[in-house]
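Input (structure):
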């Protein structure tokens, strides 16, 4: 099987402002602390929507660019104890640092992901055992999630195939998406496919069982949506087209 090189490493810019560590990977996007405060966006009249899900996510505009601001929140049973707090093990071990660095590497390599803008890690004092974090990314225009698309109408075989081929493209590059589900796949009006939310994602050896685990996780997500809503347009024919395109794409 042909192997693709991992995306080249990057060195993000970092600045400490009071309790905040600000991180960015593009010199055109030197962030300000207020960019990470939803109340600032609201006061400025910038908010033009919100996304449902585990985290607090708002849509806003910065420097004439539509953006997505996501606050990190825990899932599972631990969310009742820790909510949005994470154990501090050093700046480069924070989830926001790891995600923005990975997303920037993928974006620079030309993979279909949103452009990362900046991250904030807030640690109240230098001795705090916990931190909170936020991530700013560019918002992809005229897109909807795979889940939203299936809730409204059937997808044709070509679109299912495009989803499978896109996942294969990431897998050929060694990208292990930790939460590949129907909410983290975006479709645009020109049949483009994108992956989002690389929290806990990583680069791995470009073959292995992790690729199948990613795809099985997506399958469980689609089955769950179909179970919750009997009008959902997930079909076995569509899934077969996705699997076939994914399998073929691994050898491209």
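Output (sequence):
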């Amino acid at each position: 099987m042909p192997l693709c090189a991992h995306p080249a490493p990057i060195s993000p810019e970092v600045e400490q402002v009071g309790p905040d560590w600000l991180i960015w990977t593009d010199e055109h996007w030197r962030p300000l602390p207020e960019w990470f405060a939803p109340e600032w966006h609201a006061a400025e009249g910038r908010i033009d929507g919100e996304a449902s899900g585990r985290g607090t996510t708002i849509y806003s505009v910065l420097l004439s660019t539509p953006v997505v601001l996501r606050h990190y929140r825990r899932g599972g049973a631990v969310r009742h104890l820790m909510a949005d707090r994470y154990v501090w093990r050093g700046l480069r071990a924070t989830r926001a640092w790891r995600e923005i660095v990975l997303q920037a590497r993928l974006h620079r390599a030309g993979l279909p992901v949103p452009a990362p803008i900046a991250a904030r890690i807030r640690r109240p004092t230098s001795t705090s055992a916990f931190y909170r974090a936020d991530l700013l990314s560019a918002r992809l225009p005229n897109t909807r999630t795979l889940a939203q698309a299936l809730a409204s109408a059937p997808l044709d075989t070509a679109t299912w195939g495009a989803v499978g081929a896109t996942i294969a493209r990431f897998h050929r590059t060694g990208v292990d998406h930790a939460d590949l589900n129907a909410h983290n796949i975006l479709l645009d009006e020109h049949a483009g496919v994108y992956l989002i939310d690389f929290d806990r994602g990583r680069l791995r050896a470009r073959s292995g069982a992790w690729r199948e685990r990613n795809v099985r996780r997506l399958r469980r997500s689609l089955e769950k949506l179909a179970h919750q809503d009997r009008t959902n347009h997930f079909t076995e024919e569509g899934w077969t087209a996705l699997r076939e395109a994914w399998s073929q794409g691994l050898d491209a």
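Notes: The longest strand covers residues 130-138. The chain has a mean pLDDT of 93.
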